[in-house]
Amino acid sequence: MLDILSGIGAIELIERTSSTLRVLQVVQLSLAPAFLLAGIDAVMNVMTNRLIWVANKIERILNAGEEGDVEAMRAELPALELRRIFAQRAVMLSTASALTISVVIVLLFISAFVTTPLGTLVAVMWVISMGFLVAGLGSFLMETRTAAKRNRERMRERRARSTA
What we know:
Structural class: mainly alpha
Mean pLDDT: 84
Order of helices and strands: HHHHHH
Shape: rod-shaped
Low-confidence stretches: none
Strand content: under 5%
Radius of gyration: 25 Å
Number of strands: 0
């Protein structure tokens, strides 16, 4: 593509990319990132479901009437809001990772058509995508730890009330 714009003829471009072996190599190189995309998709499905659950729980609490447990329900809001923030951040960072992995795949295929070396750019994009993925998984870890911590606190409160 870039070569056509820079004056190299279409025939030379076709000759350079007509090699089945070259295309096969590019497809093989793109398989690992493609499988990683599938894995990120599975994790994002879990993250998104947790985010939806937390958001719905917050909405139910905020819309609760003047029933007896409203104060107890509202006491849950700070932990739920923190969980929402972590879950939303995890989804956003994982999406950014998936996007940059997609860019890596596109760059791998573009590299079959251009003479300009793109290896450094591919490597930088891969490192960026792994950074996003690690940060997203770290946020997901924080969300699950926040949920577990709040569950432990509730269990202690219930035990204290039952023994009192």
